[in-house]
Amino acid sequence: MPTLWLMEDQLSIELVRQLRPDRVLLVESRKHYAAWPFHKRRIVFQVSAIRHFAEELRAAGFGVHHFGLNRRPYLDSISAIRHVVRETGDSQFVVIAPSEHHCAEWINTIPETVGVDVRIIPNTLFLTNRDEFAAWARPLKRPVMEHFYRRMRVKLGVLVEADGSPAGGKWNFDKDNRKPPKRGMTFAPPLAISPDPITRTAMSDVEREFPTHPGSVEGFALPVTRADASRAWADFVKHRLPQFGDYEDAMLTAEPILNHSFISMLLNVGLLSPMKLLRDIEAAHLAGKVPLNSAEGIIRQIIGWREYVYGIYWSFMPEYRSRNARGSRLDLPDWFWTGKTEMNCLSRCISGVVDRAYSHHIQRLMVICNFATLAALSPQAVNDWFFAMYVDSFDWVVTPNVVGMGMHADHGTIATKPYISSAAYINRMSDYCDDCRFDPAERVGATACPFNYLFWTFLHHFAAQFKGNPRMTMMLKNAAKIDAEQMKRMMQQRKEFIEVHVRGKVRQA
Questions:
Q1: Distance (Å, rounded) from C-alpha 113 to C-alpha 109?
Q2: Using omega within 30 degrees of 0 as the cis cutoff, is the peptide bond preceding 111 cis?
Q3: Shared domain check, 489 and 351
Q4: Given this model, what pLDDT does residue 113 score?
């Protein structure tokens, strides 16, 4: 087999062993990492993972052509490919179908640009077949995740009985996974890995090459090898998975991870296999170590949302990314890059992203995207921010989750209603309101929480658009009960807030 050219999210030794290539090409493309304001930790994670993977391949007996960030003049994939052709005389390359649409389009230009042959083979790092998913999803007005999830459970034989019925008699235990947190609760922290010499060099390289990128490399302690990824996963299964379900939607200031797995970045680059994770979860449940609501909750994240958004992405791209159901156009306020805002919930969640390049899914959905939707921020600008700032980001996972699930800008393809709320939800599910200067009970006035007047004015403004949606009926009825004078005051306060805290503080290019 000719040269196997792997992308940064295809670091699977099992896949390489199956293909048995003559050599493997790995490129840390400085051009790519410089093109976006990627968080430094995201770059360190990927670069260190690539370098460790190169060592793993060499130890397994494979020839490796590895081009690092500072291996001048080979600072992008094109120059690296040309070097390999000159050195080996081989102009044939095999590429696993990229997970990202823009990357796939670019790969198609390589043969003419470089004068080489590129053969693209199916991507088996996901459990979803793109063509099968598209055949199911495209004819539907709303390809519902729950329907897909149940089919996948049966297809893969995960937590199902012999007759195909769900274990425990229910497909979904989501209603059991919404307990509000208790103040002072503590959770086992994720496994921290001290940086080895390879990782420390990656940290230095990133600081030197991308000094103006957001975030810091200080305190980096993520797993970057297959062995450490497996250790981190085992640690989650033992210490956090048993209680994962109960507080899946909770948020606490002192506990940024809670019982979440914190392994999405490992899964997304190929250091963990989704099928192995599913079998480990199922085995832990059958052994009596993990209750069903926790097992089902994490399985739904893996073969429900993860595989589902991958299928949605490949069924509707590239136009999906540009969807904007309500015509929201505002750019991001500058505090999206610092976390310095008086709204404590947003400050905590965004500061966590600035510090760690991570926040868990409820912080993403019900705080950051909730605000972005209510404040009419551009879905594309928010999407770009998530793509740049999160350690686990790739376009296939970010775009459906932000444009679709997070901001309901996709005309309802993913979600039947927007995931929006007033301050009441945030106050119930977190401790963020405890030391915030804004009052979650107030709708208007100097101490009124912005989430309140943004929420009620949003419903007022888009009442006609959501009138026929049965899941919005109660919200719209409650909005209609607000007297005209109070709504007028909230509209004015909304206008002032947007002018001062969004339009007035836009990050300069």
A1: 6
A2: no
A3: yes
A4: 93
